[in-house]
Amino acid sequence: MSVLVMAACAYVPSSAHTHGCLRAAPRATALLMAALPERVAEVLPSSVLADEAVVPLWRALRAVYPSEEAAVAAARRNSAVLMPYMNTPEKIRGSWGVVQELCGDDALDIITRNPGVLGCDPDALAQANADQVRSAANVANVFETVLGPARRFLQSLPGWDETR
Asked: Dihedral of the CA atoms 10, 38, 46, 159 (nearest 10)?
């Protein structure tokens, strides 16, 4: 798997995922939002908040990080890992296992800098080597450092989520 493909998995702006999704009833959305930390819910499009599959994704993501704070930071860094139409809890668990196997003690640093690696197909990720996974984390980190503030500013503007 190429470094750029893994880095592309790592950096997908949240607003790119709002098209073509149905909205759930406000009560259902409120119940789902109650299962997510507020700082996670605020970066997810309403179409994702309306999908009950986001809760198992959050639980799987939370399970691989040492604290809820670290998992929230990962979700805010790359909300694509919580997009039910892009990811599954099995991918998160499987990718985490592969990163641990490939990178050993660096695994937590890798998923902290590049949470998107947790959205990779574990079988495809297993074909990479540790240097490729580390390089992808470095590329994702550069993207977040350079483009992250602009993305967060745009998402803070009214209307960033056209389904709301």
From this structure: -90
Please name the residues in contact with 118: beta carbons below 8 A apart, sequence gap of 6 or more.
Answer: 61, 64, 74, 81, 87, 91, 92, 95, 96, 99, 111
Are 113 and 138 within 8 A, CB to CB?
A: yes
For the segment 91-145, what is each residue's pLDDT rounded down to a tens digit? 999 999 999 999 999 999 999 999 999 999 999 999 999 999 999 999 998 888 8
Query: C-alpha dihedral over 73, 105, 58, 15, to 10 degrees?
Result: 50
Distance linking the first and last C-alpha atoms of the chain: 36
DSSP 52: T
| pTM, to two decimals | 0.76
How many other C-beta atoms are found inside a 10 Å radius of the C-beta of residue 78? 26
What is the Cα–Cα distance from 101 to 84, expressed in whole angstroms?
26
Residue 42: count of CB within 10 angstroms of its CB: 13
